[in-house]
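Checklist before submission:
- one chain only
- standard amino acids only
- sequence pasted in full

Submission:
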Amino acid sequence: MHAAQKGKVISNNAIVYGDPYLKSPIGSLSLGTEILLSDKRHNNGRSFMISLKNTVAYIKTEDVITENSIIKESDKATNLGNGKFAHPVREMLEESKEDDFTKNNFFSLEIGATSFVGGDWDKFNSIVLNRGTPITNSMAVYIEHAPKIHSHSVAVGFSYLSQKDTKSSLSAFSLIGDLNYELVENSLFNLSVGMSGYVVADMQLKMGSPLERFKGSAFGAGPKLSLNLFPLSKFGLHITGRYQYYKTVGFEELELNNFQQEIGIDELSNFSITVGFRYQVL
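Returned file contents:
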């Protein structure tokens, strides 16, 4: 990249392009987004090269205001009347150093499959029911805040797990919080890692013969890995893998119908794979 200068987007949803000729749109930037630009213009002055995290892209010159453009317009710095001068671009950049949570917000919906391994639910199915643990269906919705000028994002949402057959069933409604960090990003995809926390307000297990319902709750955490397609666009797709560990409350000593021994479900662990989409709502 050429020598760099700071700038700020002055258009609503300014289009970002993958080429200096502005023929391949790859996303957009919100009004007020601060960016790093080249000091030279491209395509006969029609575009600037910009840096978004680890991605090189281009933006129309009329969609940004830059430090150099102010300086070259010969002392358009504003006299404040107290012997000090304020630089218009620098002032705007300083005003937006903190994330604006009213911008760069995405709605996400995902569905997938969860396999319980190693915990008490897996042991119950293996030892008591003499079978492998059935695959559990999962669904989740999130609101994610993902500022384009940073490599991290945060999300909160809800998930629902469900598995049911004639021998047992499990259902869980959870509140989820995610913290993500992008390892690699370009206009086509990014790869991110993260940590998630879970609070399960309502967990229900059905066990015994005939089936009997038991209610409780749980809390836990675990890492995640996501492949996100079209990260700079308003619409994107993703594939996510998670490991989840839970401590349960309310399932310590369960007396099941037609079972001689008490059963305890104290901890759960699982792996899940989900696919989903996200859409920029703000």
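Reviewer check: Residues 73-97 have pLDDT under 50 and may be disordered.
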